[in-house]
Amino acid sequence: MKKIAILTSGGDAPGMNAAIRAITRTAINSGLEVMGIKRGYSGLINGEIFPMDKEYVADIIQKGGTVLMTARCLEFKQEEVRKRAVKILKAYGIDALIVIGGDGSFMGAKLLSDLGVMTVGIPGTIDNDLAYTDYTIGFDTALNTAVEAINKIKDTSTSHERVSVVEVMGRNCGDIALYAGISGAAEAILLPELEFDKNALYRTILDGKSQGRMHNLVVLAEGIGGAIELAKEIEEVTGIETRATILGHIQRGGSPSGSDRVLASKLGAKAVEVLLEGKTSRVIGIRENKMVDDDIDEALAVERKFDQKLYDIAVVLSK
Ligand code: ADP
Ligand code: F6P
């Protein structure tokens, strides 16, 4: 193996640049050539491929987003399109591809490896929805952004003795909501992994009011959604003024946290090591603070386990 390429795919996540830097520097320092592919699989099939050097990745570790840009490329689900991609990689003399993204991006990488390309995936998504790894790049930064926003919302909510409903991202995964809810001392955390009892929520809010609580914070995962409607219903049923805030894409941007930079650096370095060992169709992750590499199919088949214990702690602490 002489030449590898990197692409970022799916939703961007803070820390992707730190991973790009780690891959590039580890590979070049191991004697490999590195190519960058712009705009994910879409750039691959359009031949948006260029040589990367150590200079290209200087001064990017602190930047949010991805310098390689990202895209969603639905055509990549077609086999003939992927076969075209393989020809393009061959034409550039690229022996292996490192894909930074979520499960969809990993599926694309797996299908490319079925066509003979060496591939390795690195988990990059704010959602933390890949079960084989304890954490994904970007989750910690998104969590901290959500917590900072919640702190600010609580200031105004307390001053007006209101209820605040804050909707956070995460697609079908409640991790951002659960972690942000516990960090922001929420009175209620509503997650797609759990049944949601509206009457219990109203009772919590009314009990809090009768005990002299100045505000109520409800953190709602996007996987449930409907923050604006829920705020209206809470106001109607409890008689307490309620406001909804949907944090949205603010959670995807910003300078990555120290933890995300370290995680991305470790995952990037490990991805190159795995390729140098001659392995393919692998994904890198972190479990119990140790770097792991797993077969892509096996990793994608791991069922997500909900952290019931953490949720139970949040409930006890909110009382
Ligand atoms: P994420 O990687 O964050 O889960 P997506 O699910 O949007 O994001 O997937 C990103 C890209 O990966 C898609 O736009 C497509 O190019 C590729 N991809 C997703 N699913 C598949 C699939 N089943 N086969 C081939 N490529 C796929
Ligand atoms: O997967 C990351 C994520 O930000 C999810 O939390 C959210 O559901 C989705 O992407 C939003 O996608 P888009 O940027 O395409 O609106």
From TrEMBL:
Binding, ADP: 21-25, 154
Cofactor(s) recorded in Swiss-Prot or TrEMBL: Mg(2+)
Regulation: Allosterically activated by ADP and other diphosphonucleosides, and allosterically inhibited by phosphoenolpyruvate.
Gene: pfkA
Cited Pfam families: PFK
Protein name according to UniProt: ATP-dependent 6-phosphofructokinase
Purpose of the protein: Catalyzes the phosphorylation of D-fructose 6-phosphate to fructose 1,6-bisphosphate by ATP, the first committing step of glycolysis.
PROSITE patterns, A to Z: PHOSPHOFRUCTOKINASE (PS00433)
GO biological process, one term: canonical glycolysis
Every Phosphofructokinase domain range: 3-275
Keyword tRNA processing recorded: no
EC supergroup of this enzyme: transferase
Catalytic activity field: beta-D-fructose 6-phosphate + ATP = beta-D-fructose 1,6-bisphosphate + ADP + H(+)
Residues the entry annotates as binding substrate: 125-127, 162, 169-171, 222, 243, 249-252
UniProt-annotated binding residues for ATP: 11, 72-73, 102-105
Subcellular location: Cytoplasm
Listed EC numbers: 2.7.1.11
Pathway assigned in UniProt: Carbohydrate degradation; glycolysis; D-glyceraldehyde 3-phosphate and glycerone phosphate from D-glucose: step 3/4
Alphabetical keyword list: Allosteric enzyme, ATP-binding, Cytoplasm, Glycolysis, Kinase, Magnesium, Metal-binding, Nucleotide-binding, Transferase
Family of the protein in this entry: Belongs to the phosphofructokinase type A (PFKA) family. ATP-dependent PFK group I subfamily. Prokaryotic clade 'B1' sub-subfamily.
Residues the record lists as binding Mg(2+): 103
Cell membrane as UniProt keyword: no
Active-site residues per Swiss-Prot or TrEMBL entry: 127
